[in-house]
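dumping the sequnces here before i forget
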Amino acid sequence: MKKSDAHEDSGMQIISGTPAIGLRPANQVMTLARMGSFHHSRLSFMRVLLRRLKAENWQFKRSRWNMDANGVGTATYEAVGPKRSYTLVAFAHDLPAEKRSDRVIAEAWDATFTLHDGLINDTDIARLKRNVPLQEAGRISNGEFVLSRANRSVRLFDYVRDCLASGTQPSLDKIEPIGYLMRTTAVYGSGKFGAADRDLWAERPEFSGSFQPELLAVWLIRSFAIDIVEHMAAAKSPKTAVSLDPNIRRRIGVGNSTGLGMAPFLINHPSLLHSWINARETALARVRNLASTDKKGLSNLLALIARAAINAGEWTSDSPYQIGKTQALCDDLANLSAFVSAVSPDATFPWDRIYLWGEANLSLEGQEQLVSLLLEDHGSLIDDLATGMSADETIHFQIDGAMPLSRLRQMMGNIYHWTDKIDYTRNDALARVWYVSEEKLEPRLGQRFEEPIEPYEQPLAPGRDAVLAMIKIDEWLAKTANADNNSVAQFLLQHPEHRHIIRRIQTVSSLAYAEIQDNTISASMQPIDLLRCKLSFFGASKFDPRSDRWLRITMYQGAPFPDELPRLDPDALCYPPIAHSDHLDN
Amino acid sequence: MGEISALATKAARGSGLDWGLAEEAGYAVKWLQRRRLPGVMALCRYLSWRHGGNITNWPEETGVHGHYCPIAIGAAYGDGAFGDEAQFSRIKTPLLLIPFAAIRLTEKPLEINIGSSSFYLTKDQIGYTNNDTAILSDAAACQISIASASLPNVTITSTSDLPRVPSTATACVSVLERFAKNTYAPASEESRLAGAGAGLNDND
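..and the predicted 3d for all of it:
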């Protein structure tokens, strides 16, 4: 279906062999406000990873632990799979409090990490010790897939250490709202700072999907964070120190601070974005198309709603934007619970009925939480979709120059019809500029009419660029109505300035969910919506915006640790257990 | 290799190419380096020259002193703007043209004449005559045609392993980094605070 026009009938695609409920149309799904309300689901990459590790019976071992009383030293964690092995190498540092910053502009961290391909020897560890602690200023090799670093939580780390040192367990009431002992402040993957190119491992089945090496590293970093706090508790008070209770430990994930560095990703990778959203939308459609359920199915959903409500209640943020959304979510979940309680087990198409009620009665935050909850209990129906959540972007690179220009113009009218309601002559529609700062080479967002940054603008405003190209194409077509040189190739030979957007148009034309249908440079755009969307696909929870352009999240909170994976179901643990504080199942 | 492609894209953009063509420069460099041909060096030489040199825009004539841009002409050839067989009076750093000829390969091999040297392309092989003269050519008349002769003896097979950019290209990488820097806005406290979004305690 290359270069066909998915946008002409977006929303009308019917999954083969299923009744009439189609995928949600792109113009409903692909708005920043909705994308910024996505929640993790069964198809999130952390959950895909843990399902695979469990199914394939991967073995894990802390193979080195050379740490002094101050918590400075080296540790390695091995993950041994059916065919290949990987090692997380961790370097723990003694970081003065005044140097601890989550921002990407920091230059020192509590701990630094790399994921090594295979089991590791001491020579490689020595090489990595010279480079990994430097992060962006160092250099890793084809033998490494991930580079990362993390800081301790000032709110929680010392508290947990002191509790354990004195022989007591930390309180879940303190742990739940924070959810982590350490926060990663960057997890760099393929091709960054010398790390192996994605091409080198893309065919490995254990990494099929998206971001699997990065998320394997983060999951092992979580073990390191527990080990280092227990180590320091024992160093502080060897006679009284205890280990963390497994039920408390499981409620500790890994934090992450993410800023604008991640924001352009979804715009820069349209075919990948499509593959993610398409999988999630297909999953939703499959569930909505189920003709019936029973009492158990409905009670399972009610239990999930109750657990999601606990999660929402523990979701704290200082951001007025998120506080409003979270409050709406809490109300939504209460209303949803009441509605589902009244649904008869004999109702036809019960999930579709519940979904449609949600669409009419819930906030976007609540609607998208409902989507995730509807998927939860249907693993056998939808988990196969995870394998399709990646994209070979090279197949879209080559421009179809033979395409008649009029055909391209017609496609643009369909794909970018949403730009009709944007007046790009107004300053507020053009207010922002995406640019890369010389410092740390990180994407940033500036004010076009207040800062001298326009010359550095990155091509991250497809709507505006499409409108400019359409104007130029219309002029060209008006001048040469009957000429035989009205091909895309001839137009581009004279107008190379539109080459980037025309490549994009031909890419997204066959992919309904590839383009965000919003103005990504308007004065009112919320960059954190982009971050939230991407992080929900990772599997993050507890989104906590710290401003309009960076946020904190929690990863793997509730998930099993390596030693628990054989006997626990990771998918059953990703919402908080009901009444966790007085019912510690094990 | 992905990293070098990204660097080549930024360097080309930093030298004034439009984003779409800069992406083609990234493609060309990666294509060449994967085949152990000096794409980094070629782009470094081309952009260094372009900094002060005069580009002739198609369909103007180059005359004796003008030059076509290998990336702009290459991309247009790849798009099909010139048909499968084409000739150009003078192309600067013509090694950069070859990855674009590869785009239009069918079952029939292509012959690319660069000055007095010839390259031959098939789906999975690249061969060339006259050793390195064509690889290092500064500027030459170029002709792309359907190959009539069988492939010459010197042959490089497209490699399935991914060679890293050799250390001999370090100086060229530095030059590309210098051009890439033109795409970065100078650091300022305003940018650090406003652009990246500070304002709340991040150490907790």
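Residues 45-259 of chain A form one domain.
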